């Protein structure tokens, strides 16, 4: 929940290669209070069956920049193992991007929903509502 002095962040992931939410992707959240300030790790969580991460840590007062780190290599490795179990065949190993780091500026009192559209060889991100 945001107040006048803090921003808030939420996210979800859609695996566009299968058209479904990406479950079990670990996400860490870091923040800083100024362009030259050090990043402070705030904690993290993982996406649920709907691809949503509903329990990211709150941002501290004075946060100006946020970084979301998505650990996608483990997710795609698991998906690849499941696919080979169903229909064994030669496939590319893992994901081209083992992690995705998204950094963005925030304004106190605003909510930032940052969806990640993901596939093994690319990704897109935007500010949602």
Automatic annotation (TrEMBL):
Pfam families: Transthyretin. It catalyses: 5-hydroxyisourate + H2O = 5-hydroxy-2-oxo-4-ureido-2,5-dihydro-1H-imidazole-5-carboxylate + H(+). Homotetramer. One of its GO terms (molecular function) is hydroxyisourate hydrolase activity. It is an enzyme of class 3 (hydrolase). Catalyzes the hydrolysis of 5-hydroxyisourate (HIU) to 2-oxo-4-hydroxy-4-carboxy-5-ureidoimidazoline (OHCU). Keywords: Hydrolase, Purine metabolism. Belongs to the transthyretin family. 5-hydroxyisourate hydrolase subfamily. Gene3D superfamilies: Transthyretin/hydroxyisourate hydrolase domain (2.60.40.180). Residues 9-128 form the Transthyretin/hydroxyisourate hydrolase domain. Its EC number is 3.5.2.17. CDD domains: TLP_HIUase. It comes from the Bacteria. It comes from Streptomyces flavochromogenes. The gene is uraH. This is 5-hydroxyisourate hydrolase. Transmembrane segments: none annotated.
């Amino acid at each position: 929940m945001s107040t006048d002095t803090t921003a808030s962040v939420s996210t979800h992931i859609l695996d566009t290669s299968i058209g479904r939410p990406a479950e079990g992707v670990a996400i860490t959240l870091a923040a800083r209070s100024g362009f030259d300030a050090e990043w402070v790790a705030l904690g993290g969580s993982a996406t649920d069956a709907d691809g949503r991460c509903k329990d990211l840590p709150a941002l501290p007062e004075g946060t100006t920049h946020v970084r979301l780190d998505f650990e996608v290599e483990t997710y795609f490795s698991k998906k690849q193992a499941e696919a080979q179990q169903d229909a064994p065949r030669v496939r590319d190993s893992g994901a081209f991007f083992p992690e995705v780091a998204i950094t963005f500026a925030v304004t106190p009192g605003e909510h930032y929903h940052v969806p990640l559209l993901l596939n093994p060889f690319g990704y897109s991100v935007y500010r949602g509502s």
